[in-house]
From TrEMBL:
Residues 161-250 form the Fibronectin type-III domain. It comes from the Eukaryota. Gene3D superfamilies: Immunoglobulins, von Willebrand factor, type A domain. The keyword Secreted applies. The keyword Secreted applies. Residues 1-133 form the VWFA domain. InterPro entries: ECM_Assembly_Org, FN3_dom, FN3_sf, Ig-like_fold, VWF_A, vWFA_dom_sf. It is found in: Secreted, Extracellular space, Extracellular matrix. SUPFAM superfamilies: Fibronectin type III, vWA-like. Keywords: Extracellular matrix, Secreted. This is COKA1 protein.
Length: 291
């Protein structure tokens, strides 16, 4: 599978799209380069939420590998997103080209770094890595497969997935989430949320016995994407997804002027819900304007 990213990650093809080596190579030849920003953290979150799901072709019993190819320093928190993947047993290989930040590559990649971090001066030099990287990837998969007992049945997806996400009590800066837990209770839940027009993803990790959460400190009048993932010892279940917008900030109403004198006036208004302070601006009207 392959996803390309800048400010907004884009899935080029899923794990289930092609079944032969020639098909993958042909798709790669037809790939159009996507320029733009370098939001690596958002891209890694996209891979977890979109590309490593059973409906995208990820098999529950299979080892999960992510190869990150980047030519710049991330403009968001790549380390936090990478740590989430690594905590779920997903192995990350980091390959830098040209202006990549080697310190960041080492933060993002899995241990041991001498096998998972690579850096070259220009794109044509990537071809020199292919042989070594292929051998390392295959060896790592065999090692992990031999260590772990891969006896999770493939058809357990629905048993691992929560249902019926409800978003309620929406205000200008908060919302409340509830969901129905899966048949098999998870160890933890991971809740990810971020503005739909772009922004750094934030996440909350909950105990698996909890099935509700209040999100606070949100931005007013903003559409948010929300995802809830159940986390088990060896697998991540299908996530629930929802979208909703916070309310605009309320405004004061019914401004009234009274007790006028030659150098003073009294102002009064109906309160704005949730306001903690008011800023009152006063300036002389230009000549000829209505009083």
């Amino acid at each position: 599978g392959l996803s390309q990213y800048s400010g907004d990650p884009r899935t080029e093809w899923d794990l289930s799209a092609y079944s032969t080596r020639d098909q993958v190579l042909e798709a790669m030849r037809n790939l159009r380069y996507k320029g733009g920003n370098t939001f690596t953290g958002l891209a890694l979150t996209h891979v977890l939420e979109q590309n490593l799901k059973p409906e995208a072709g990820a098999r529950l019993e299979a080892e999960k590998l992510v190869i990150l190819l980047t030519d710049g320093k991330s403009q968001d928190d790549a380390n936090l997103a990478a740590q989430t993947l690594k905590n779920l047993g997903i192995e990350i290989f980091a390959i830098g080209v040209k202006n990549a930040d080697e310190a960041e590559l080492k933060q993002v990649a899995s241990e041991p770094l001498e096998l998972t971090v690579y850096n070259v001066l220009d794109f044509p030099l990537l071809s020199s890595l292919v042989g070594k990287l292929t051998r390392v990837l295959c060896t790592r998969i065999k090692e992990k497969s031999n260590k772990e007992n891969a006896d999770i049945p493939v058809d357990t997806g629905p048993q691992l997935s929560p249902t019926d996400l409800k978003i309620s009590a929406v205000t200008s800066k908060s919302m409340h989430l509830t969901w129905s837990p899966p048949l098999r209770p998870p160890k933890k839940y991971r809740v990810v949320y971020y503005p739909s027009k772009g922004g750094i993803p934030k996440e909350v990790v909950l105990d698996g016995a909890v099935s509700s959460l209040r999100l606070s400190n949100l931005t007013s009048h903003t559409e948010y994407l929300v995802s809830v993932f159940p986390i088990y010892d060896t697998v991540v279940g299908d996530g629930l997804r929802g979208v909703t917008s916070t309310l605009p900030l309320s405004s004061p109403r019914s401004l009234r002027v009274s007790e006028l004198s030659h150098n003073s006036m009294r102002l009064s208004w109906k309160a704005a819900q949730g306001a903690t302070q008011y800023l009152v601006l006063c300036s002389a009207a230009p000549d000829g304007a209505e009083d």
